[in-house]
Amino acid sequence: MADTTPSSTPGAMTDAERRALVASTRRFDLRRLLGGLFLLYGIICTILGVVHNASDMKQTGGIAINLWAGIGMIVLALLFFLWDRLAPVPEEDIIGSAEQVEYEKAVGEAREVG
Amino acid sequence: MLLPPTSLAAATDISIRLNLSWVDYLMLIVYFGVVISIGFIARSRVKTSMDFFLSGRSMPAWITGLAFVSANLGATEILGMAANGAQIGVATLHYYLVGAVPAMVFLGLVMMPFYYGSKVRSIPEFMLRRFGKAPHLVNSLAFAISNVLIAGINLYAMAIVIEAMLGWPEWVAIIVSAAFVLVYITLGGLSSAIYNEVMQFFVIIAGLVPLTIVGLHRVGGWGGLKDAFAKTGSVKHLSAWAGTAIGNVSNPIGANWLAIVLGLGFVLGFGYWTTNFTEVQRAFSAKNMSAARRTPLVAAFPKLFIPFIVVVPGLIGAAVLGNQLAAQGDATHLSYNDVIPKLIQMYLPEGVLGVAVTGLLASFMAGMAANVSSFNTVFTYDIWQRYIKPKMSDAHYLRVGRYVTIVGVLIGIATAFIAAGAGNIMTYMQTLFSFFNAPLFAVFILGLLWKRMTPTAALWSYLAGIAAPTVVWVSYLNNPKLFATGTAETLYGAIISFVTVIVVGVIISTFTKPKDVSQLKGLVYGVGKIDMSMDAVASDTAWYRSPALLGTVALILCVVLYLPFL
């Protein structure tokens, strides 16, 4: 479909703009948000698990559930960060979807395209 | 500070009020802070109406896949399936392994190429391309109206649970949750909805896994659970297919295996998962054909394992709470729907408690957001653009989309308040709307396989397919002896609806004029060719991304997961 999806405004972006766009898109990658959220939740639960160990054990019947859940969520967070680092969103995906604005407008207006 | 829930005093307590500490509230506040931030981040990328309604068709498969499963993982679904687990036991697995996963595989392997390949922007638009305006208008209106009202009904269902769990007045719960949905959908459109669905997916799992672990530990593991059911004589709780023989039905669903497979699996399951735009929209936002086909397949794997953290807590609830449970809660009984909140109250200490409550509230909101984000798309593209104001600029439709979101949420709020006053009418309407998917699937499947099916046939068979189950249902209300249970009525009603569409569709097609074959390219099986590598990238060819392989493995797992429960 590459030939039917005109990159409508070829060369409309300068290199600096492209770099800024890629950087800003990657900064807010969903995996980083998920990693951040679970890191915070994991730390909170781990601390509670240590501080309230006795009362936790009593309620759960002997499982330090906050400790385990906390550690689990921290590991999950680190996996999200690692994944984000190893496989960042491809540059051409970011640039590509930003450059097909005219094509998208045509689709949005239900005009014949391609 | 915490309740001593294991003591006898608490065990007979039918309140599900949770004792949240400031730490739990902090987790809740952080989560909804992130939700709103996602709205703002997504907003900066919304430049066209396609960005707003279909995320600019740019999403990778893991995100659309998790959003696909998550859009259906609303809290009403979670509480309802746990309730089924408590009431009918592992037979609840049918809703996942018969009613969902095969349909998801079918969508990914068979139907998605037609949908994504024809570049339609919504399910009603596929109806338009295949059958023309009359069935399209009926389909669009039915979808838009039912969806916005369902959003309201779910909003009310949520308010009841929030009131019981947290003590917020119903109206506060309704307004606050609707306001969150309004803000993040109006800002970021479908991208907001999808990102939040993915986040909700992980948080609800992080809440339910500890609940299941502690619950199983409390009943003495799987063996303890078995012993508990053996003692109470309800051994059938642990066998999924017992009492489903044809002519000798004694299972709690009240239907034989054929009706379960055809009704729940084929008609209802396929109808819901392959033609409900609220679900399929997630796949439409995928970045290419391969990702679109993989969306429901990626979703199938979490779906296979969700019962282990939803239905198992239901079983634990049945074992632990046993005679305190009743179909309807009253002064001395918990309703089956209260099982999960009750177990949370009993087993989760401050900390994981906050995660679980956040997960439940998030899934309530994600469910409503999914309804709203598919409603605004169908209203704008299929009703406004097609019949009211065509040929306007894209900016106009983007603006309309945002206004429609606001109107949709307001109607939802109004519906929730009406539901609070007249619950029965709402239940009836919800049942009525549930009749919309099965006939749509029947029309699509006939239209996809048979190029001779005519637009007139589509319109009238679709309408007949909505009318037929309505008649069956009204007869059942007047004469409850017709079917063993309400669920059995639903299964047979769906089968009758499907058969009605096929019969009426074939009869009318034989004496009306079909569309010219040249107009059906890529819309009917065997007519024209569909480009399966549309927008493909090199990594799509990795062996583990093969749709056929993913689908086959999912189907095998459907069978394997039943084996322990025969």
TrEMBL record, chain A:
It comes from the Bacteria. Keywords: Membrane, Transmembrane, Transmembrane helix. The chain crosses the membrane at residues 33-51, 63-83. This is DUF485 domain-containing protein. It comes from Frondihabitans cladoniiphilus.
Automatic annotation (TrEMBL), chain B:
Its main location: membrane. Coiled coil: none annotated. The keyword Oxidoreductase does not apply. PROSITE patterns: NA_SOLUT_SYMP_3 (PS50283). It is found in: Membrane. Keywords: Membrane, Transmembrane, Transmembrane helix. It is a multi-pass membrane protein. InterPro entries: Na/Glc_symporter_sf, Na/solute_symporter. The chain crosses the membrane at residues 20-42, 62-83, 95-116, 137-162, 168-187, 199-219, 257-275, 296-321, 352-379, 400-422, 428-450, 457-476, 491-511, 542-565. Belongs to the sodium:solute symporter (SSF) (TC 2.A.21) family. PANTHER family: SODIUM_GLUCOSE COTRANSPORTER 4, SOLUTE CARRIER FAMILY 5. This is Sodium:solute symporter family protein.
